[in-house]
Design goal:
- This protein is mostly helical.
- It has one domain: lambda repressor-like DNA-binding domains (434 Repressor (Amino-terminal Domain)).
- The protein contains six helices and no strands.
- Helix 2 packs across helix 4, helix 3 crosses helix 4 and helix 3 packs across helix 5.
- The chain is globular, with a radius of gyration of 12 Å.
Length: about 80
């Protein structure tokens, strides 16, 4: 199963925001470009979120959650604080 490792990492809280975001995007079946367009942010910013450890503002996080079809709690769960 593609997401088995992800689910295990999520369960144990061993995940950063970027990794979690990438798996949610893949689970939604979206490319970076599609997800960024739906969230009204640039693809380069999305890449920064997934790969460079950036964290979005609350307003951008809400748009990202909506673009991925999840609520804000799902977007932020599993993430190391």
């Amino acid at each position: 199963m593609l997401f088995a490792k992800y689910r295990e990492m999520c369960y144990h809280g061993k995940m950063n925001f970027g990794t979690h975001l990438k798996y949610l995007r893949l689970e939604a079946g979206l490319s970076v470009q599609e997800a960024a367009r739906k969230a009204a942010i640039s693809p380069s910013y999305w890449y920064d979120l997934e790969g460079r450890g950036f964290e979005p503002t609350l307003s951008k996080a809400l748009r990202i959650a909506t673009a991925l079809g999840v609520d804000i709690d799902t977007l932020t769960k599993c993430v190391n604080q």
